[in-house]
Amino acid sequence: MKITHLLALALLTGSVALADVTTMEQALAGKEFPLTLKFKDLDAGWRRLTASATVDPANIYRAMYGGAAAGYYYTKGQTVTVGGETYLVAYKSQMKALDMVAMQAAMRGGQPPEPEKPTATTVLALALLNLRSAGSLTDIRPFDLDAELGGGDAGGADDKDGEASLKNLRQIGVAVMAYIGERRVLPALADAKSAKEELVLYVRNKDVFNQPGNQKPYLPNPALSGKKVTDYDKPDKVVVFYEAAPGSDGTRGCLFLDGHAERVTEQQWRKLKEISQIP
Predict the structure, then answer these.
(1) CB 115 within 8 A of CB 68
(2) β-pairing, 85-93 with 73-82?
(3) Is the Cβ–Cβ distance between 42 and 121 less than 8 Å?
(4) N or C: which terminus of the chain has fewer CB atoms within 10 Å of its end residue's CB?
């Protein structure tokens, strides 16, 4: 059997590599793929991405306070097919477990736990992602070592307000996940005021509910009020909070139900608005 490339990633990397693998044991033997790598081993031929199958508030928290390395996968786009299932060959950083109790306390104004900071020698472990069950592969970006170690958002908005807005949205995302963790459902999201009242206990700074610069409140998606994350097949496509208007670069910041935040074009926004049932 041959290792092939997932089409979208092959177009991005522009590379082809083939190897013989016949069983899962071979795939995990460390001969075709190293079982571990380090950040310093990766180069411009690698890509960073998010797999949307699960929503993990700890990973979102690490991404906010511990650098961009947490919660992401790194791949060259190679796949291996074993037993009729296709797996994306990827690597994920091995970050120390976070104290979830301390994390929730921090959302109420306590001292936030210190996540482990990634370094050039941080270990990345082999992770074979089943493409049938892994959900959508999103936020695909070229690998940039400086951005990974510094927590930067490569490919984000050109202006500082746009980048700061994404950080605000991510913090709101952590608050939403903490709320869900306690109550199993999404908060009331009828309007900006009621959403803030529901979530303000879970943030360290209530100013995160307003955009940097213009101080306009982020708008919630009322269609999600009281719903469960499991009610949605593709949480990475469902908008929870968003900027009322596009920024100076023509993009709009959005927080999604899987916890990630990104800037989208107006063409993308029109599709997302329909998918998310935003009035």
Answers:
(1) no
(2) antiparallel
(3) no
(4) C
